[in-house]
Amino acid sequence: MRYWLMKSEPEAFGIDDLMNRPGQTEAWDGVRNYQARNMMRDEMRVGDSVFFYHSNCALPGIVGLACIAREAYPDSTDPASATAKPRWVVVDVQFVRKLARTISLTELKTWPELADMPLVRRGNRLSIMPVTPGQWNFILSLE
DNA sequence: GCCAACGTTGGC
DNA sequence: GCCAACGTTGGC
Description:
ph1033 like fold; DNA-binding
């Protein structure tokens, strides 16, 4: 059982959108970064826990919890998805709950305990990243 | 809207 | 296979 952080722009698809989906589940499509894809394809397993992060918005930060509901399969938004060699994959992500408050990026950056997270490192653009159990528990304790 | 960071593309 | 140009991400 692993822990992840997944970024999404709330204007495109936010935590409320996930909550309101049928089954509260949605395919996480559109990932076009190999590192992120490889994590989805090779490491994500059903039941893994996910921090849902809002990016590129007024208050970037962690807004909720989700889990992996289905392991990697071809991304239907990829033109090659129906061919023998799909390049991009999705996983299904299921809503768990919203946090009581947004734990903002600004706040996350203040904690030495989280200094190793790619999220708080300058220039990092990974949209999916692993979270250690220690980081996961520490962040939840901030709620 | 600006712009730094960085991944990708394509000419050579 | 190098690397400059270009496009995208995402905080501010």
